[in-house]
Amino acid sequence: RPAAPSVCVYIGALGARVICDNIPGLVNKQRQLCQKHPDLMQSISDGAKEWIKECQHQFRQQRWNCIESYSANGFISLLFILLNLLLSLLSFFQEAAFVYAISSAGVVYAITRACSQGELKICSCDSHKRGLGSDNNGEFEWGGCSDNINFGIKFAKAFVDAREKMVKDARALMNLHNNRCGRMRFMKLKCKCHGVSGSCSLRTCWLAMSDFRLTGDYLHKKYNNAIEVTMNQDGTGFMVADKDFKGSTKNELVYVESSPDYCIKDPKTGTLGTDGRECNKFSRGLDGCEVMCCGRGYDTMPVKRVTSCDCKFKWCCSVECKVCEDVVDVHICKPSMRPEQKLSRRPGQISARLTQ
Question: Which of 219, 234, 283, 355 is 20 to 30 A from 123 via CA?
Fold first, then answer.
């Protein structure tokens, strides 16, 4: 299967203005940024892939499991998914808080990576750190070229926040706040040792982005502890709904409205429902059949699974495994009852059928 064409192919054939004017959902500020920096649109597309994949992973064992997989071709389709998913979650739910934060983080991550890899004309890696530094292990010398996350944050803020800055209402304030939380810096210090026999008498260090999975884990924890807020009277900020709350919301995800149960498919809330979802018969958590299936029950079916087994290291240098097949029981949530089915199941009709 051929690879999806890149943004460079699209723009080379049609021109930046034509492409940017025909991307659905962009506001004027975003179109201007697209036309000025068309090569950055590929990074935004890569960011969309990154955060959608991570969102699916983080919520794989919950009723709301982010967004179904898309087999989109090219950057236009993926950007369309990103923008319209955000638009489809115009609600004030807790899940929307996570989506805005992780999508903003995905754009930062992808642009920063592209800068460091020399894929963009407008930026490169960050070579400003020089001289001596220190950490818990002692002194080190700044060297190499650190990831240029400052540029990634700056552009992501300008592009992602542009839509929300057009209006001043509770939804926009909530989204801007959660966007900022998603852009918090996730950098780690990487070092290389120098010295006789690896004594590490001298270290050369640089800053690099952490794995995006760590960002997803962090934001999922923030989601679990998200704070319900209400808009203040003058419309300039939030008040915490819980009057007994004494902490700060500055670095916390916020939401305005309690989430639905996500049991039934509803495009308005971005949920696919739990019909046909796999559940854990032995768990009492969110992935357990009782919770996942919303009390509808589940079906158990045998499924053949193929795995690698009896793996052995072969000199040199490979690992050889056998292919093993086993049959396991898989538990699947029963489908929800359609409205017409509920109406047809009146007590009188049921008893009449039983007595025939």
Answer: 219
